[in-house]
Amino acid sequence: MEIYVVKVSDIREDRLNELCLLVDEEKKDKIKKFVNKKDKIRSLVAEILIRTIIIENLKINNKYIKFNKNKQGKPYLKNHLNFNFNISHSGEYVLCGIDNKDIGVDVEEIKNINIIEIAQNYFTTKEFEYIVSCDVEFQLNRFYEIWTLKESYIKCYGQGLSIPLTSFSIEVDQCKNIKVVRNNEYEEHAFKLFDIVQGYKIAVCSLNKEISNGIVMLNQNNLIDKYIKFNLEQMKG
């Protein structure tokens, strides 16, 4: 298992268009449809990140990298069932996790929102009690813990929002051990929370019993340069 984070920065419009030529048509069309430039950059950087990881790990020529989606829309790498990945992005960060079993990742920028109303409507009673059982100053942090953990579980499970958010419960004990309860039974998912980036919460969920303790921080410019280099080498080869 590996977990990667890229801090996103601005890309000139002409450079953006050039880089879009190095991804497939479907992704290029999706990027072009975004009105907000930041959304375009996040989506492009996420695509470059997963393609670079695949090229490095599986030695596949970029033009032969093909993605499919399951019925709920979760993407997977065609013809490589033991290579699982998941991507999330929020604010200035793109997050990607790869594993040999199902994995789900979520990054959320922490914002001052009405956490009580949201938690009452979309979280279970136990989750709500976990959030409000601490001092007010810590409730926002706990809210984002539950939010990202629930998102990572849904994404790992691969069924998207076809799973009602209140149909399962995330439990965090006093020792910060994390479990998920569904249909009154504990499931065999492993979880981990990360606070490596100030103002953001990161959660990872995996069917493997252990989750990596570290996150690989990548520089956007270095990542793009490496991706371009791989493409040039593969074109010559």
List strands and helices in order, with pairings.
Layout: E1 2-7, H1 13-20, H2 25-33, H3 37-58, E2 67-69, E3 75-77, E4 84-90, E5 93-99, E6 103-109, H4 115-122, H5 125-132, H6 136-157, E7 168-172, E8 178-182, E9 185-186, E10 190-194, E11 200-206, E12 216-218, H7 220-236
Parallel strand pairs: 1-12
Antiparallel strand pairs: 1-5, 2-3, 4-5, 6-11, 7-8, 8-9, 10-11
Helix pairs in contact: 2-3, 3-7, 5-6
**CATH architecture field of the largest domain:** Alpha-Beta Complex
Helix content: 25-40%
Question: How many domains make up the coordinates?
Answer: 2
Rg over C-alpha atoms, rounded to the nearest angstrom? 19 Å
Shape: globular
Structural class: alpha+beta
Ends distance: 30 Å
Query: For this structure, what is the CATH homologous superfamily of the largest domain?
Result: 4'-phosphopantetheinyl transferase domain
Provide the β-strand percentage band.
25-35%
- At the first level of CATH, what is the class of the largest domain? Alpha Beta
Q: Runs with pLDDT <50, length 5+?
A: none
The description of the largest β-sheet is: 4 strands, mixed
Average pLDDT, rounded to a whole number, is 93
Order of helices and strands: EHHHEEEEEHHHEEEEEEH
CATH topology name of the largest domain, in short, is Ribosomal Protein L22, Chain A
| Spatial sequence of strands, sheet with the most strands | 4-5-1-12
| DSSP summary, beta strand count | 12
DSSP helical segment count? 7
Explain what this protein looks like in three dimensions.
The chain has about 240 residues and is of the alpha+beta class. It has two domains: about 1-100 and about 215-235, 4'-phosphopantetheinyl transferase domain (Ribosomal Protein L22, Chain A), CATH 3.90.470.20; about 105-205, 4'-phosphopantetheinyl transferase domain (Ribosomal Protein L22, Chain A, Alpha-Beta Complex). The protein is built from seven helices and twelve strands. It has a four-stranded mixed sheet. Strands 6-11-10 form a three-stranded antiparallel sheet, with helices on one face. Helix 2 (about 25-35) packs antiparallel against helix 3 (about 35-60). The longest helix has 22 residues, at about 35-60. The relative contact order is 0.17. The mean pLDDT is about 95.
